[in-house]
Design a protein that fits this description.
Chain lengths: 302, 225
C-alpha cells in the first residue's frame, strides 16, 4: 500500500519535472479561465445585489421621510390601495425599518461609511410598487409625479431610471464573460490533456514494460491523473488569489463612488466570494482530473 | 502449460499471421519457435500474453483459455509470464537495480521483498555488483541479462523470449542461452523465437517451425534445418 503510494507520488513528481514548460502553461491557462469563471460569478452576484430591490416586478419605490408617524404611513398606504382598487396599481408592499435596514445592507454594501450613518431613527422606510402597466413610460412618470405630492413622501424612484441600463450591462457582461470562461476552460482542459498525452508519450516504453509485467491500467493511470489534478488545483489556487485580490480592490474602489452613481451595491462582501473560491477549487480539480484521466485512458496503449 | 487449438490470427484480409495452429507445451519445457521473418513467430508469442487476440481458436495458458479472459484479469495473467526482447526494453533513466525492481514495484510487492529478491536475481544472472549502473554503462549481453532478471524476478511460470540473442555476438548469445537453460531447469517453461541456427542446433530442445503462419514441423530435440 505505502510502496504504491510512494511510487505514485514519485512518478507524479518526476513527470512534473520532465514537462515543466507544458505544465506551467497548463496551470496558467487553468488559472486564467478559472479566474474569469470566478469573476463572472461575482459580477452576476454584484448585479443581483444591485437589482435586488427591483425583484418581483417592482417598478417604483416610494421613499417615506424618516420618523413618519403611523397615520402618515396609513395615508400613503390608503392612497396606494385606492390605486389598486382602480386597477392602476397591481400591488404594493411596505418595507418597514428592519426591512429597509436590510435593504441598505445590500444597496450600500460598497459604501460602509454611508451605511454606518443609517440606523432605526433616520432610515427612510419605503413602499415597493408594482404598477399594472409597466411598459408605458409616460404612465409610470405620471404616477411618480402623483406620488411625490403625497405628504411624508421623501422621493420616488422609477426602476426605469436604473434598471434599464443595469440590465443591459448585466446581460452584456454575463454573456461575454460566460462565453470567455467556457472557451478558456475548454482550452485549459485540452492543454492539460495534451500535457498528459506528452507525458505518456515520453514514457511509452515504461508504460509498455509496466503493462507487460502485469501492472493494472489504474496503477498506470493514477500518477497521470494526480498530475492533472495538481495542475487543476494549482491553477485554481492562483485564480482564487487573483479573484480575491481583484474583488478587494473593486470593493475599495466602489467606496469612492458618489452615492448618486447607484453603483454602491455592485460589490460582493457577504461571504459569497468564499463559496465562489470553493467552486473554483472543485471545478479546477475536476477539470484537471477528468482531462488527464481521459488522456491517460486514451493513450494507455502507447 | 500452454495449449493452442486451431488458432488463426489475421492482421487484414491479405495478411494472415497464423493459420489453424495447434500444439501443446508441457510445464518446464523449452521450445524454440523457428522460421523465416514474417512466419508468425512473434505473433504467436504475443498471443500468449494477450497482446494480440486470434480470430479463431483457443489459447490456453496455465489451464485458462485467455481469449475469453476479461481485460481486468489480463494483468494477473501477465504476472505469470516473463518477457524478454531482442532490444531489451530497459528504462534508460533507471539503474540496473531499479529496472529489475520496477517489475516488482508495479505489481505492489513490498519494499523489503524487493530489497531481498532483486539482488538475488541479479546474482543469478551474473550482475552482482553492477546494481547501480545505468543501461548505457553496460554491454549488450549485460543489458540482456538485466532484461532476463526483470522477466524472472517475479518467478513467472512461463518466459517468452523474442529473439533474445538477435543483437548479440555468438559468444555473448551462448552465455544468454546458458542462463535461460539454468532458468528452465528451475521448472520455468520457456518459449523462444529465434533465427540463430547455431543456438538451436547446440541446445537440442523441442523445435516448432512455422512457415507463412502454418506449423510445418514440431520436433523433440530438434535442429534448425
Amino acid at each position: 500500500m505505502f510502496s504504491r503510494l510512494g511510487y505514485t507520488f514519485r512518478e507524479t513528481y518526476a513527470s512534473f519535472r520532465r514537462n515543466v514548460t507544458l505544465t506551467v502553461a497548463a496551470i496558467i491557462t487553468a488559472a486564467v479561465s478559472l479566474l474569469i469563471f470566478g469573476l463572472t460569478l461575482l459580477i452576476q452576484r454584484g448585479f443581483d445585489n444591485l437589482l435586488q430591490r427591483w425583484e418581483g416586478g417592482v417598478e417604483m419605490i416610494v421613499f417615506v421621510n424618516a420618523g413618519t408617524q403611523p397615520d402618515g404611513l396609513q395615508f400613503i398606504s390608503d392612497a396606494l390601495q385606492e390605486q389598486v382598487n382602480s386597477g392602476t396599481v397591481q400591488s404594493f408592499e411596505y418595507c418597514d425599518v428592519a426591512c429597509s435596514l436590510a435593504d441598505a445592507d445590500v444597496v450600500l454594501a460598497g459604501d460602509p461609511t454611508t451605511r454606518d450613518l443609517l440606523d432605526e431613527t433616520n432610515i427612510p422606510t419605503l413602499f415597493k410598487v408594482v404598477p399594472s402597466e409597466s411598459t408605458d413610460v409616460t404612465f409610470l412618470r405620471g404616477l411618480k409625479e402623483a406620488y411625490q405630492t403625497l405628504p411624508s413622501v421623501h422621493s420616488v424612484t422609477l426602476a426605469e431610471d436604473q434598471l434599464d441600463l443595469i440590465s443591459k450591462l448585466q446581460g452584456f457582461v454575463s454573456t461575454y464573460t460566460t462565453g470567455l470562461w467556457i472557451a478558456l476552460m475548454a482550452a485549459s482542459g485540452l492543454l492539460i490533456w495534451n500535457t498528459i498525452r506528452t507525458a505518456m508519450f515520453a514514457r511509452r516504453r515504461e508504460i509498455e514494460v509496466m503493462k507487460l509485467v502485469g501492472a493494472t491500467d489504474w496503477f498506470i493511470r493514477i500518477p497521470f491523473m494526480l498530475e492533472g489534478l495538481i495542475q487543476g488545483v494549482l491553477g485554481a489556487f492562483a485564480a482564487i488569489g487573483a479573484m480575491l485580490f481583484i474583488n478587494w480592490r473593486w470593493t475599495e474602489g466602489v467606496k469612492d463612488f458618489p452615492d448618486s452613481s447607484g453603483m454602491t451595491a455592485l460589490v460582493v462582501v457577504d461571504g459569497y466570494q468564499w463559496w465562489v473560491a470553493l467552486i473554483i477549487l472543485v471545478f479546477g480539480a475536476l477539470v484537471g482530473m477528468i482531462g488527464s484521466g481521459i488522456a491517460a485512458s486514451r493513450f494507455l496503449d502507447v | 502449460m500452454i495449449r493452442l487449438e486451431n488458432v488463426t490470427k489475421s492482421y487484414s484480409a491479405e495478411v494472415t499471421a497464423l493459420r489453424d495452429v495447434s500444439f501443446d507445451v508441457a510445464k518446464g519445457e523449452f521450445v524454440f519457435l523457428v522460421g523465416p521473418s514474417g512466419s508468425g513467430k512473434s505473433t504467436l508469442l504475443r498471443l500468449l500474453n494477450r497482446q494480440e487476440r486470434p480470430e479463431r481458436g483457443a489459447v490456453w495458458v496455465a489451464g485458462r483459455n485467455i481469449i475469453d479472459m476479461p481485460p481486468s484479469r489480463v494483468p494477473h495473467l501477465r504476472r505469470n509470464i516473463g518477457n524478454i526482447f531482442q532490444d531489451y526494453k530497459l528504462l534508460s533513466n533507471k539503474t540496473v537495480f531499479e529496472n529489475v525492481a520496477f517489475a516488482q514495484e508495479v505489481i505492489g510487492r513490498p519494499k523489503h521483498v524487493i530489497r531481498q529478491q532483486v539482488p538475488a536475481v541479479l546474482d543469478l544472472v551474473g550482475l552482482a555488483g553492477k546494481e547501480d549502473r545505468f543501461p548505457h554503462q553496460l554491454s549488450g549481453g549485460e543489458q540482456q541479462r538485466v532484461s532476463i532478471a526483470r522477466a524472472f524476478v517475479n518467478r513467472p511460470l512461463i518466459l517468452i523470449a523474442d529473439e533474445p540473442t538477435g543483437n548479440l555476438d555468438p559468444g555473448t548469445g551462448e552465455g544468454i542461452m546458458r542462463l535461460l537453460d539454468r532458468i528452465n531447469k528451475t521448472g520455468t517453461t520457456i518459449a523462444m523465437a529465434t533465427h540463430d541456427q547455431r543456438i538451436v542446433n547446440t541446445m537440442r530442445k523441442r523445435v516448432i517451425q512455422l512457415d507463412r503462419g502454418v506449423v510445418v514441423r514440431d520436433q523433440a530435440r530438434g535442429v534448425y534445418q
